[in-house]
Task: inverse folding
């Protein structure tokens, strides 16, 4: 049973997937209350399906872009669940998830998420030798400017790797 967690935006979501179909899912407007809402709802869905933590086989988590605080909550929770049960953890880029339902269309898809402080994350996807995310240079000028601004950020991506990668001292 795969547990999927998305806290990358103000709209959160969780789902339980058995490898064939989604057995339960919950999506809601969490605002900035991810930390207090996600775990109780995971517990609620698992109880409704009569599942125990031992029934989980993997944990998937949205890796952004998105709200910095929201991403930390989702990744920390996913890592805690995965580490405590010895499960694999799968990082899924938020923009990939938003673009995927539109993969059969002929036009390019540009999903966008609010990052906070009047900044947005976006990418361009197109059917071109299969469904793929295009390099930033292939997108409109506004996307290229946004990417350049994000590169100048001092926060970088190291915190995502630190949360998602297993610790060497973990038992």
Result:
């Amino acid at each position: 049973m795969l547990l999927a967690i998305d806290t990358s935006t103000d709209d959160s979501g969780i789902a339980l997937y058995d490898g064939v179909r989604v057995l339960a899912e919950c999506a809601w407007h969490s605002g900035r209350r991810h930390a207090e809402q996600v775990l109780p709802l995971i517990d609620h869905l698992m109880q409704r399906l009569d599942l125990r933590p031992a029934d989980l086989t993997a944990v998937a988590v949205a890796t952004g872009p998105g709200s910095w605080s929201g991403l930390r909550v989702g990744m920390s929770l996913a890592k805690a669940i995965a580490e405590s049960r010895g499960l694999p953890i799968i990082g899924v880029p938020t923009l990939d998830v938003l673009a995927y339902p539109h993969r059969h269309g002929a036009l390019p898809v540009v999903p966008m998420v609010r990052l906070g402080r009047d900044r947005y994350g976006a990418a361009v996807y197109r059917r071109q030798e299969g469904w793929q995310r295009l390099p930033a240079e292939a997108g409109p000028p506004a996307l290229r400017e946004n990417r350049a601004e994000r590169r100048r950020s001092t926060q970088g991506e190291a915190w995502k790797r630190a949360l998602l990668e297993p610790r060497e001292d973990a038992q």
User: Anything to note?
Assistant: DSSP finds five helices and nine strands in the chain. The radius of gyration is 17 Å. Helices lie at 34-48, 68-85, 94-99, 141-151, 158-164. The chain has a mean pLDDT of 85.
